[in-house]
Amino acid sequence: MLAEYRKIVNELNDAFNEFYVLSNKNAKKIDEYHLTFQQEVMMLYIMRNERITANDIAAKFEITKSAVSQVISKLEARHFIVRKSNPSNRREFYIILGEEGHKYAELIKNLDETLIRKYYSQIDIADLQHMTQTMKKINEVIIEHKENE
């Protein structure tokens, strides 16, 4: 039984790797920003959850606030994000997109639109929904196991 899972997981990994290579050919402008993987992931999270705190990010990615602060400082120096003080708690800062962050967000939005128009729209919507549901189930299982460890 595990052999079947191993075969499917290998195929899944191959498909993800191929998708990454193919989709990156459409994303050359993103490479021009020279963000690390961790910076990219945090930027995507901030873009979808503006006005969050370093504590929110640390909790989401299960990393230390110090690690978040290091990444945030680099993004702030490059004007991707701006820290704004929380009026109700002066010791806390909200993280919002800066000038470069807005440009990056627009680029990501345009890339997504291109991928949808050219590729995703060629796939039956039910298949995309099923794939999304399956990935969410896998994520739930991983989270469940982490909590039980």
UniProtKB/TrEMBL annotation:
Pfam families, per the entry: MarR_2 (PF12802)
Q: Does the keyword Transcription apply?
A: yes
Q: Does the keyword Transcription apply?
A: yes
Q: Where is the HTH marR-type domain?
A: 1-140
Q: Name one GO molecular function term.
A: DNA binding
* PANTHER family xref list: TRANSCRIPTIONAL REGULATOR, MARR, TRANSCRIPTIONAL REPRESSOR OF EMRAB OPERON
Q: What is this protein called?
A: MarR family transcriptional regulator
Show the InterPro entries listed in the entry: HTH_MarR-typ (IPR000835), WH-like_DNA-bd_sf (IPR036388), WH_DNA-bd_sf (IPR036390)
Keywords (A to Z) from UniProt: DNA-binding, Transcription, Transcription regulation
